[in-house]
Structure formats: structure tokens, C-alpha cells
Amino acid sequence: MTTSAHVPVAIVGGGQAGLSVSWHLSRAGIAHVVLESHTPVHAWTDSRWDNFTLVTPNWHCKLPGYVYDGPDPDGFMTRDEVVAWLQGWLQTFEAPVRTHTRVSKLVQRGEGGFALTLETPSGAELLTCDDAVVATGGYPLPVIPAYAGSLDAGVVQIHSEQYRNAEQLPDGAVLVVGTGQSGAQIAEDLHLAGRQVHLAVGNAPRVARFYRGRDCMTWLSDMGLYDRPAQQYPGGRAAIEKTNHYVTGRDGGRDVDLRQFAAEGMRLYGTLADGKDTTLRFEPTLRSALDYADSIYNSICSDIDAYIEREGIDAPPVSRYEPVWEPDAETTTMDLAAEGVTSIVWAIGYRPDYRWIEASAFDGGGRPMQTRGITSVPGLSFVGLPWMHTWGSGRFLGIDRDASHIAATITSGYHESVLQLAVGH
């Protein structure tokens, strides 16, 4: 193993969050390096399906020194448009990125700072730094249940991050498991492609795409919800740890209505509990899950109504969602072969994986213990996590603010150290 030169700051991860910290550090004159295992912002091309669109309006897209200024601020960029937008941002500055460099270990050093083990095309290296910023994303490991391995080997199984389009799956019906943003939109994508879709519905809430003349997320932004610190958010930690509301920006944006899909032939079930060979068992939770999602939908509309009335805004009249379909009975078992299901798309999320970091910065669930990205471990910070500071954290809307805070904290500590050295000298 060779030893690299010491750098003041190492940023692990070259996505938009890590590069945003780099942007601010460069302007502060702080030497640093961005360590990226692939290429910058590669996840947008590698982990999104062909018909992916943003679920937040284009005007939410703000990065350091760069905002969306295209012709459709209230529209929703496709995957390829997001990639092009990000490439335009990368051309506005020169980040010190080392591509194809994976950090396999980050260790807190007794004398201060950190030692990073790097895996590079030319071999292993050891890099030391004073400050380390972890920008690898909040949940990098796809979740697939343990019983998936006991299902019929003839059924193709993929995780949602591997899904690209209906054509990649074998002919036949498809079971999508999970109704977070990815699961609901992938189910829609397959449904629109003419596939028979079976959908295991989870406990995710939903939100109207448009309400009273505007996008709901624009109303919520005006109401200050994206700026409210996590500690002050209604419902506390239980509320912020729930799955994101499902909605879509496809074809100009619309609601994702699972009941309407069912009326059109999609088969809905409750939470998938377990399975073996070709037999699956579902919990009888479908009706309650649909009712809950609709209650959140209408509750958000009520919050917007209250804001409109409080501010005296002239807007179209109040409305509420009324169910267009109800389940006759709860189906709790399925035979994959009998239903012609030839593939399963697991869309039940991701989990954190910080086993490569040796530092006392994590809770019992393996999640970073941080305040606005700053941990109690001197010099160790995180960026790009959902709810790191506000609802906007982890989204384009909040990245610049979070990155700026991390960079300012590092810069302040760096300048203080320089001052102490000067006084001591």
C-alpha cells in the first residue's frame, strides 16, 4: 500500500451533495479532494429508470452558483434532462475529483484527523486528512427480504434501483412490492406499458400533484415547510421517518392514484409478509393503507386551505379526494405461477451502511448522530442525508444550504487552527 500526500479535507462521494461542499471549500481557499468510486453524479444515469422524472418542480433545482433557468420552472425534468442540467453545473467550476477511487475504510486517528484506505485502479493507497465529509448518501444498500431466496428460481427478481423499463423483464405479469415514490411510479410505468401489474401496497402516504391552482409542493414551500428544522416539524421524529409521499411528475405531473389503477385492472394487495416457492402471503392491510394515504392527501389539502385563508389568497375552490374504487375483500395469498407472475420488483427501500467508518458517530441503528451534518467526532461530518436539517435536506432544494453550513464549519475550524499556530509561533 502506498501513502498519498496529506490533504486538509477529504470529501467521500462525488454526487451533488459532496460536490456542493467542494464548491464552497474552493471559494474559501481550503485545499481538499473529492473521492468518487465511479464518476461524478453517476447515480442519475445508473440508478433511475428510463421514464423517470423529478417529483419536485424544476424551480426546486438549486445548487451552489447554479439554479434551473429553463423554460418550464413549474414542470418536472426527465432523467436525461437532470443529467444534462447537472453536467452544465459541473462545467461552471473545477472540483478536485479523483474518480474510480473507492474509500474502503475511514479510521479516526488518535492524534487527530483521519486515515482513509483507498482502492484505486493502480492499487491501494493510504490518505490522511484533518476533516472528512461523508457524502455517500443516506441509504446505499438496497433492501431485499431474506425469504426472497426461497422463492421459485424461475421468477426474475430485481431491486427498484436496477429497473429501467418494462422491456427488460420477461413476458408475463409483474409483482411490484412497495409503494414509496419508486414503487408507485414503477408500478405506473409498467401499467402504462400494458403489463399486468400486481402491487403490494405499503404504508406510504400520498399527496396531490396540483391543488387550488398550483403545485402542492409550491404551496408547501410558501408555507415554510421545507425550511422548518427537523426538531420543529409537526409529529416529531415519527413523522419525518415515514416514507415520502408518492406522486409523479410524469407527463407534466399528476396524482398517483392506486385506486384508479385498480379500477383499470391493476391487482392490489396488502403488505407482503413472506413467501416460499410460488406461494406468497400478504397481510390484510390494503383497505387501511389506501384509506391512510388518502387521509394524508386530504390533510395536506386542508393545511393549504388554512394557509390560503390566513393569507387572503385568491385561489380556486376547495376540493377533496373521493375514492374511485374500494377492495371487495382482502386477498392474502397468491400463487405466482397461477397468476402468471414471471418477475418481481422489490421497491422496499434501502438501509444505511457505514461499516467502513471506524468512529463513534452512530446510534444503535447505524445512523449518524449529527446536528446539521456535524457530529461529536472532531472533523467528521455528513451531507446529503434526508432530514439532516430540514425537509429540504437531501433534495436539490436544500443541498446548497446544508453544504454551505458544513463548509463554513470546516473553514471556521481551519482558520482558527491557523490563528492558534500563528499566536503560538
UniProtKB/TrEMBL annotation:
InterPro entries: Auxin_biosynth/cation_transpt, CHP04046_FMN-dependent, FAD/NAD-bd_sf
GO MF annotations in UniProt: flavin adenine dinucleotide binding; monooxygenase activity
Database matches in Pfam families: Pyr_redox_3
Keyword terms: Oxidoreductase
The keyword Oxidoreductase belongs to this UniProt entry's keyword annotation: yes
Coiled coil: none
UniProt key word Lyase: no
NCBIfam families noted in UniProt: MSMEG_0569_nitr
Protein's UniProt name: Putative oxidoreductase CzcO
